[in-house]
């Protein structure tokens, strides 16, 4: 390969010197560690300079990682420690039927990806009690912003042009969700009003009246509470506005689905279904309506 270059070079080092600028090229030799070489009596001797084999390096990494201290995370705000059972990992994430072709001309990876996305969408529809879902959104907070703009676009044109449009947001929504909503709303002329949407039997919804774009609640909320929103849903729909629910897929395996108490939109992140923390996210969201 080196001889085929134009101009040809005599070694890899010479090739690197031609390609890399001299001011960023290190003149120091690369230090390569290797496993300890045992002496004849079994004691640890000098370290090999030939580097590690793959299995030796994996063992070395496990040894280094064993010194880590794992603490409980209290990040909250929609993130929870997870563990994916091996049977799920093997039969869902690693199912060879999704990526192994049984004839040489079939794009099994594309077919398998479509099948897995369809499985995900079907699961989201089942758990949220809503008839349409997409495959993924960026994260929960930006999904909330999409729910807000969807709510505005669902209004009649005359109400979209009202100068005092209000989007009511529960004070028990995750703080990062509220922050993204506030930054997105200004571009649409929407006022974000954060407060207790259930106070006085949802009276604030009625007070806003025709200026109401929609209402967003968290279920379960950022403090872990679960409320009954059926009465609130009826008040929102009486004003022909949209009721949006930020929720948690794993919680919905035991809670009443949002679609059954009147939600028009349900969204949240999929972190609870086995995505590691990853230093806080964001984690792929779901969106159903």
TrEMBL record:
SUPFAM superfamilies: PLP-dependent transferases (SSF53383)
One matching Pfam family: GDC-P
UniProt keyword terms in alphabetical order: Oxidoreductase
GO molecular function: glycine dehydrogenase (decarboxylating) activity
Keyword Cell cycle: no
EC number: 1.4.4.2
Protein's recorded name: Glycine decarboxylase subunit P
Biological source species: Cryomyces antarcticus
Residues covered by the Glycine cleavage system P-protein N-terminal domain: 9-289
Lineage: superkingdom: Eukaryota
